[in-house]
UniProtKB/TrEMBL annotation:
Residues 38-116 form the Rhodanese domain. Coiled coil: none annotated. Pfam families: Rhodanese. This is Rhodanese-like domain-containing protein. One of its GO terms (molecular function) is thiosulfate-cyanide sulfurtransferase activity. The lineage of its organism: Bacteria, Deltaproteobacteria, Bradymonadales, Lujinxingiaceae, Lujinxingia. It comes from the Bacteria. PANTHER family: FAD-DEPENDENT OXIDOREDUCTASE, PYRIDINE NUCLEOTIDE-DISULPHIDE OXIDOREDUCTASE.
Amino acid sequence: MTSNLMTFALIALVILVALPIVRSRMNFIDPQEARQLVEEGALLLDVRTPAEFNERHIPGALNIPLQELQARQGELPEQARPIVVYCRSGNRSSQARNYLRSQGFEQVHDLGPLTRWP
């Protein structure tokens, strides 16, 4: 039993140390900066599934699931308008940011997880 507890504690410690490092490498925008951009007119883009969006989302967000982003790209504003993208964990939003930037959208900012919204 003690061995299992020690293993669990070690795994928890590794996760606590690694998580901020992983998130920082994902290039998430500061949540306060994201809010300011949205207040100044940036599009808030939720790339989660419709079910996730319906369960909880940031008011005013547009929901285009990551897997539909290419097909629905025409629903996005002109490329000069900033976009703040988010998802559940930061993985899909990072993929969306990279895709949109490859399509010429220069002002795409990744909030990461919805839970980071201030």
